[in-house]
TrEMBL record:
One of its GO terms (molecular function) is oxidoreductase activity. It is found in: Secreted. It comes from Nicotiana sylvestris (Wood tobacco). The lineage of its organism: Eukaryota, Viridiplantae, Streptophyta, Embryophyta, Tracheophyta. GO terms for cellular component: extracellular space. Residues 9-396 form the Glyoxal oxidase N-terminal domain. This is Aldehyde oxidase GLOX. PANTHER family: ALDEHYDE OXIDASE GLOX1, SECRETED PROTEIN-RELATED. Residues 405-511 form the Galactose oxidase-like Early set domain. InterPro entries: Gal_Oxase/kelch_b-propeller (IPR011043), Gal_Oxidase_central_sf (IPR037293), Glyoxal_oxidase_N (IPR009880), GO-like_E_set (IPR015202), Ig-like_fold (IPR013783), Ig_E-set (IPR014756). Its main location: secreted. Keywords: Oxidoreductase, Secreted, Signal.
Length: 512
């Protein structure tokens, strides 16, 4: 789609197959008007006090259309996560938005509801994660060396100090904003900022483990802006479930002040991989085929990782990156270490600062944004504002894979399940089915901004028995949902049947 009216700086797929996107309110008029003559009247706005254009839209995947939404306070560089009921809870921002909580529900007429100043600490460049009990934790942000919870309870109605965020804060550079946060399989939080990580017991505010510094010591968080994923969780029935984190790209220390003066250092070409459940965890370093800062990492339904967007030199920030990286890369975590990366066909549009990427239910990856300009500047700049959306289609969607592609016929989408429940999944496949190469995966769709997808998570569901043929080209596989919210926080997930690395379209499942 060539013009959605705004820049897709922040992006989240909801369970009605619509994608919520927004940029910032202090950005001047966008390219899409608010409906019915509505205008936003905000005396605190830094660009337009009265603005009759939208700064958030809902994109309908099935009709390739957008609907303007209205945000009142500034959502720039904010964070978010989908609640267990399927609504997007969005926190913080800039200026008058820094203490705000806003909610948008998945419905065709819903709009943003501003819940008020429900944050104790101003949150700008923070990270959110859903917890096993369904609450959100909101960690860090500019000058915010602490965390808090939403919604509040009697015991969590204050902020909790996290000195680690102060320790990882470089003067004039920071490099610890939008920390990479993952819920570990022991219920603690893995938090990576700058060039190192800790394991935090958020219930007692105790650091239970300090991980080694990533080799090389270069920063990986904003504004150096590498990316990170928790690799797919497997063998969920075993005594010890292994959890691995992959951190890729970024920019060398000092890149931000140098880029500000017109010297653009080359981006990092390394990934670090660490098993965070090991008693003595160590980083293993790998070399990417293309150096990249501001890349986005998306877990695909088959467990591979897409690395897309970004630049080969400079850093995140307004107009201080050069050399767009146009070719995505697929990373196959289960391959031997020398054959994990594969460069894909390039796209034509540079996707640099403020670009986004999110997995869709049909297995494509929606890509948007790239906005290294103040205001909506389309001319006279090196990388003009971009209002387009495009989709990356992984090779598993190629026509020659069509006869291997499963299609789920039952259960229906949007059913509710409990932890540990068994589910029988029926699917069709028109070609020869290799029953040993069938798996069922479950993906939590994440909130993507600034090269990190918060709450992104994949689980490979344990099989219960063999794949059975129950009709002509019809098969049944029985699986068991994760046993607790520590493995899969409550909420909506995309469930895929994958055959020989070729995924079906997903159905939505809700676990609680």
């Amino acid at each position: 789609m060539s013009n959605i009216g705004i820049s897709a700086m922040h992006i989240q797929l909801l369970n009605n197959d619509r994608v919520i996107m927004y940029d910032r309110t202090d950005f001047g008029p966008s390219n899409i008007s608010l409906p019915d003559g509505k205008c936003r009247n905000n005396p605190n706005d830094l660009a337009l006090k009265v603005d009759c254009t939208a700064h958030s839209v809902e994109y309908d995947v099935s009709t390739n259309s957008v609907r303007p939404l209205m945000v009142q306070t500034d959502v720039w560089c904010s964070s978010g996560s989908v609640n267990s009921d399927g609504s997007l809870v969005q926190t913080g921002g800039f200026n008058d938005g820094e203490h705000m909580v806003r909610v948008v529900k998945p419905c065709s007429t819903c709009d943003w509801q501003e819940m008020g100043n429900n944050l104790i600490q101003s949150r700008w460049y923070s990270t959110n994660h859903i917890l096993p009990d369904g609450r959100q934790i909101i960690i860090g942000g500019r000058k915010a060396f602490n965390y808090e919870f939403y919604p509040k309870t009697a015991s969590t109605s204050n902020v909790f100090s996290l000195p680690f965020l102060q320790q990882t804060n470089n003067p004039r550079e920071e490099n610890n904003l939008f920390p990479f946060v993952f819920l570990n399989v022991d219920g603690n939080l893995f938090i990576f900022a700058n060039d190192r990580a800790i394991l935090l017991d958020y219930k007692t505010n105790t650091v239970v483990k300090t991980f080694p510094q990533i080799p090389g010591g270069d920063p990986r968080n904003y504004p150096s802006s590498g990316s990170a994923v928790l690799l797919p969780l497997k063998n969920l029935r075993s005594q010890t479930v292994q959890a691995e984190v992959l951190v890729c790209g970024g920019a060398p220390r000092g890149s931000y002040p140098k880029a500000d003066k017109g010297e653009f250092l080359g981006a990092l070409n390394t990934c670090g991989r660490i098993t965070i459940t090991d008693p003595n965890p160590q980083w293993t370093m790998e070399t990417m085929p293309l150096a990249r800062t501001m890349g986005d990492m998306v877990i695909l339904p088959n467990g591979n990782v897409l690395i897309i967007n970004g630049a080969a030199s400079g850093t995140a920030g307004w107009q201080i990156a050069r050399n767009p990286v146009l070719s995505p890369v697929i990373y196959r975590p289960d391959n031997p270490s020398d054959s994990r990366f594969e460069v894909q066909n390039p796209n034509a549009i540079p996707r640099m600062y403020h670009s986004t990427a999110v997995l869709l239910r049909d297995g494509r990856v929606l890509v948007g944004g790239s906005n290294p300009n103040e205001l909506y500047n389309f001319t006279g700049v090196l990388f003009p504002t971009d209002l387009s959306l495009e989709a990356f289609s992984p090779s598993y969607l190629d026509q020659e894979s069509a006869n291997l592609r499963p299609r789920i016929i039952s259960p229906a989408s949007h059913l509710k399940y409990t932890y540990g429940q068994r589910v029988d999944i029926r699917f069709t496949a028109s070609g020869l089915l290799n029953t040993d190469l069938v798996k069922v995966t479950m993906v939590a769709p994440g909130f993507n901004t600034h090269s990190f997808t918060m709450n992104q998570r994949m689980l490979v569901l344990p099989r219960s028995g063999m794949v059975r043929q129950v009709g002509r080209f019809v098969y049944q596989i029985s699986c068991v949902f994760p046993k607790s919210g520590i493995f899969a926080p409550p909420g909506y997930y995309l469930l895929f049947v994958v055959h020989q690395d070729i995924p079906s379209e997903a159905i939505w499942v809700r676990i609680q």
